[in-house]
Design brief:
The complex is a heterodimer. Chain A has helices at about 5, 50-60, 80-90, 110-120, 125-135, 150-165, 180-195; strands at about 10-20, 25-35, 40-45, 65-70, 75, 95, 170-175, 200-205, 220-225, 225-230. By secondary structure, chain A is an alpha/beta fold. Helices cover about 50% and strands about 20% of the residues of chain B. Chain B is an alpha+beta fold. The chains are: A alpha/beta, B alpha+beta. The interface of A and B includes residues 56, 89, 90 and 95 of A.
C-alpha cells in the first residue's frame, strides 16, 4: 500500500448524482473527484447550488451516488446497503449541523449522549462521557439546562460535543458558523480545529463563511457539480461570488 | 434511547397534555358507556339475582327469565319425583297493575313464593318479617318500589315531597287489598316495576282470570348432585326446560337462564347497537385526537428524528422509540380515563341510576383498545419518519 493510501481519509472518484425524473433531471454532481487527508480540516466552498451539500451527503453515506466510488477511511460506501451505511455512520461519523439540531425537550447532557446511546452504550457510561466532553467544550455547569436556554455559540458547542463524544474518525460540519456572529464563529472553528487535531481524524466543513477560511488546512472550491480547484491558502480564493 | 424517548415525550408538556386528554377521554367514554351498558343488561336477569335458587324449571319454549310461559300445577309433582331433587317450590311472576291510594296505577312485578318454605324470598328485609306474609292480604315491597309508589305531598318547606310506603300501608292489585308487612332490598329490574312479593296462593288470587299461574319451579339438588346434572335429569324425565342460576354471562354454558336472558336482549333489542355506537365513537375520537396529536408531535420532532437517523440510528430503533412514547401515553391516558370512569361509576352506584357494572373484562378491553389507538398513532408517526431522508438534515 502506498504512502498516499495511508494518508487519505476520504476519496470520492467520478461521482455522479442527479435528482428528479430522467425527463426533468437536475444534475447535482458531475464526475466529481474529492480527497481529504487524515489529520486535516478541509473546507468545501462554492456558490449556492454548486453541489457542496450533495457531496457532503455522499461522503456521509446519507446519499448513494448514481456513479463513481466513495471511500472513507478505507471503507467503500458505494456498494453498501442502507443497513450497512447506517452502521457505518453510527461508528465513524460525527455531525455538526447548520441549525444545531439539538432536541429542545432534552437536556444538554442528554443531547450529547445520543450518539453513544445509538451505539448501544450503557446509559451511565454515556452520561459520564457526555459530562466529560461538555467540560472540554467549556459548558460545565450547563449540563442539565435545556438547549434553548443557551446562546447560539453555546448551542453549537453542545453540537460539537455531541459530534465528538463517540470519537468518530470523520467529522462532518455543515455551515457550522452560519448562525453565529463573527467572534463566536471564530471560537467555534478554533474549537473544531483543536478537537479534531489527530492523525486518525478528518474534518470536512461545508461553508459560505469566508471569515473562517483561515482555519482550513486546505480549501476545495466547487463549481457546477465538481471540484474546480483545491488551494492551501485562502487568500488565493476569490470569495466575491461565495 | 428509550429513556431519552420518554424525556422527549414528557419534555413537551402541551402536546403531552393534549395527547393524554384524547386518550383519557376515549378510555372514559369506552369504559363508562360499556359499564352502563352492562349495568342495564344486568337488570335484564334481575329476577335470577333476587329470587335465589340453584335450578329453575320452565316451559320448554321459554327463552328468557322475563318471558314466563305458565306451567300446569301438576308439573310440580313431576319435577319433585325426579331422582336428585331435594325439594321443588312453585314460583309465580307476572306484571300487573297496582292501584295506589291516591288513584294512581303502577306496573309492578308480582312474585308469588311458596308459603311453606319461602323459597325465592328476598334475602334482605329492612322492615318487617318474612313470616308475616302468611297473614291475609299481605305483601312485601322492595325499597325502591316503596319510594316509587309513595305518596306525593308538600313538605314543610313548601316543596313537593315524596313519602315512601311503609309497613302498614295498603294498595290494591286487581281490586284486592295488599297490605305491606315488609320492605326488602333487591336489585332493580330492566322492566322498571317494583318487586312485590306475596305467597304463591295469594298471587293466584291477585291475577284473577289466569288459568295457569305457575311460572317457574325453583329446585334444590340433593347433596352430591350438580345443578347441571340435575337439569339433565329433569329435562329427560319431564320434557320441561331446566336452567342453572349461574349469572356469569361470559360463560358459554347453555344451561344458564341469566346468560340466555342477556343474549336474548342482546339480539332482540337495539341496546347493544346504541351503546356500541357510543363505544365506537370513543374509539374514533381517541384515534382522531391522539393520532393527530401524536402525528403533530412527530412532525415537530421530524428534523430531530432525521438527525438521529443521520447519526446512525436505524428505523428499528426509531420505531421502538415512537412505540415507547405512544404506549407510555396510552398507559397514562388509560389510567386517567379508567380512573374517571370508576369515579363516575361510584357516584352512579350510590345513586342507583343509571346502572353501572364494570367487569374486569371491560377494563381489559378498554386497555386493549387504548393500546390499539396508541399503536395506530405510533405507526402513523413511524411511516412519516421512515419517509424522511437522513440527508435532509443538511438542507438547513
Amino acid at each position: 500500500m502506498s504512502h498516499q493510501a495511508h494518508t487519505v481519509a476520504v476519496r470520492a472518484t467520478g461521482v455522479d448524482m442527479f435528482f428528479g425524473t430522467p425527463e426533468n433531471r437536475v444534475v447535482a454532481l458531475k464526475q466529481a473527484d474529492f480527497e481529504a487527508r487524515r489529520g486535516e480540516l478541509i473546507m468545501l466552498v462554492g456558490p449556492s447550488g454548486c453541489g457542496k451539500t450533495t457531496l457532503l451527503s455522499v461522503i456521509a453515506g446519507t446519499l448513494t451516488p448514481q456513479a463513481g466510488t466513495v471511500e472513507v477511511f478505507g471503507q467503500r460506501l458505494d456498494g453498501l446497503g442502507q443497513e450497512a451505511l447506517t452502521t457505518f455512520r453510527r461508528q465513524n461519523l460525527g455531525f455538526v449541523f447548520q441549525s444545531f439540531n439539538l432536541i429542545p425537550t432534552l437536556t444538554v447532557v442528554e443531547n450529547v449522549m445520543v450518539p453513544l446511546l445509538i451505539q448501544g452504550r450503557p446509559f451511565d457510561e454515556a452520561h459520564a462521557r457526555a459530562l466529560a466532553i461538555l467540560d472540554k467544550v467549556g459548558l460545565k455547569g450547563r449540563e442539565e439546562g435545556r438547549p434553548n436556554a443557551l446562546s447560539g455559540g453555546q448551542q453549537q458547542r453542545v453540537a460539537i460535543a455531541r459530534a465528538l463524544v463517540h470519537e468518530p474518525p470523520l467529522l462532518i460540519c455543515d455551515e457550522p458558523t452560519s448562525a453565529l456572529d463573527k467572534d463566536t464563529g471564530a471560537q467555534i472553528m478554533q474549537m473544531v480545529r483543536d478537537l479534531s487535531r489527530s492523525p486518525e481524524r478528518c474534518v470536512v466543513v461545508v461553508t459560505h463563511d469566508h471569515r473562517i477560511f483561515r482555519f482550513a488546512d486546505r480549501i476545495a472550491e466547487m463549481e457546477d457539480g465538481r471540484i474546480s480547484r483545491v488551494v492551501d491558502d485562502p487568500k488565493l480564493l476569490d470569495t466575491t461570488h461565495l | 434511547m428509550y429513556r431519552l424517548a420518554l424525556n422527549m415525550l414528557f419534555g413537551d408538556r402541551a402536546k403531552l397534555a393534549m395527547l393524554l386528554c384524547g386518550l383519557a377521554f376515549s378510555a372514559l367514554l369506552m369504559a363508562q358507556q360499556s359499564s352502563v351498558f352492562f349495568g342495564i343488561m344486568s337488570w335484564t336477569y334481575t329476577p335470577m339475582v333476587n329470587i335465589r335458587a340453584q335450578v329453575w324449571v320452565s316451559d320448554p319454549m321459554v327463552e328468557q327469565v322475563n318471558d314466563a310461559k305458565p306451567l300446569r300445577d301438576t308439573d310440580l309433582g313431576r319435577v319433585r319425583s325426579v331422582d336428585g331433587v331435594a325439594w321443588a317450590a312453585p314460583l309465580h311472576t307476572s306484571f300487573v297493575q297496582a292501584r295506589m291510594q291516591d288513584g294512581n296505577f303502577k306496573l309492578i312485578t308480582l312474585v308469588g313464593i311458596d308459603a311453606d318454605t319461602f323459597a325465592g324470598a328476598p334475602a334482605v328485609l329492612t322492615q318487617g318479617r318474612i313470616e308475616d306474609l302468611r297473614l291475609p292480604d299481605t305483601v312485601i315491597v322492595d325499597e325502591w318500589g316503596a319510594a316509587l309508589m309513595g305518596r306525593m305531598g308538600v313538605g314543610p318547606d313548601g316543596k313537593p315531597k315524596n313519602t315512601p310506603l311503609k309497613v302498614g300501608d295498603t294498595f290494591e292489585i286487581n281490586d284486592i287489598q295488599a297490605r305491606i308487612v315488609g320492605i326488602c332490598k333487591v336489585k332493580r329490574a330492566f322492566t322498571g316495576g317494583p318487586f312485590v312479593y306475596t305467597t304463591y296462593d295469594r298471587a293466584k288470587g291477585y291475577t284473577l282470570g289466569a288459568r295457569r299461574t305457575l311460572s317457574f319451579m325453583l329446585v334444590e339438588p340433593q347433596k352430591g348432585v350438580t345443578p347441571a346434572e340435575l337439569c339433565d335429569r329433569i329435562e329427560r324425565a319431564t320434557g320441561l326446560k331446566a336452567w342453572t342460576s349461574d349469572t356469569v354471562i361470559w360463560s358459554w354454558g347453555e344451561r344458564s337462564l341469566a346468560r340466555n336472558t342477556f343474549w336474548w336482549f342482546w339480539t332482540n333489542t337495539g341496546i347493544p347497537f346504541s351503546f356500541g355506537t357510543a363505544v365506537l365513537l370513543g374509539l374514533f375520537v381517541g384515534i382522531a385526537i391522539s393520532g393527530q396529536t401524536f402525528y403533530s408531535f412527530v412532525l415537530e420532532n421530524l428534523k430531530y428524528f432525521a438527525a438521529i437517523k443521520a447519526m446512525g440510528a436505524g428505523m428499528g430503533v426509531i420505531a421502538r422509540m415512537l412505540f415507547v412514547q405512544a404506549f407510555t401515553a396510552g398507559l397514562i391516558g388509560f389510567g386517567l380515563g379508567a380512573g374517571m370512569a370508576q369515579a363516575i361509576g361510584r357516584v352512579m352506584i350510590e345513586k342507583g341510576m343509571p346502572p353501572f357494572v364494570m367487569f374486569p373484562q371491560i377494563l381489559w378491553a378498554t386497555f386493549a383498545l387504548v393500546l390499539g389507538i396508541s399503536f395506530v398513532s405510533a405507526v402513523i408517526g413511524i411511516i412519516k419518519v421512515s419517509r424522511v431522508d437522513a440527508a435532509s438534515v443538511f438542507r438547513g
